[in-house]
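ENTRY TYPE: protein
WANTED: fold as C-alpha cells:
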Amino acid sequence: ASRFSRKHSWLEPIVMEGNAHGKRVYRVAIGPVARERRVTTRRLLKNRGFGDNWVLTVRTPKILTEIAGLR
C-alpha cells in the first residue's frame, strides 16, 4: 500500500490500516471528494486503471473528537 501510494502521489492518497476476517489489511484512500464530484472521480480512476474503487465513509470515533475539542 505504501509503494502504491508513493507511485500515485498525484492522487494525494492516505494509507489506512484495518482488519478484515481477522487479518490486517491496508487500504489506499483519497479524498474527501464532494458528493457532486463522486461520479466524475470514479470515472477518472477507472480510466486510469483503478476499476476496483468505491465510496468509503470514514467517521471519527467520538473520543477523538472530544480530545481534539479540549485543545
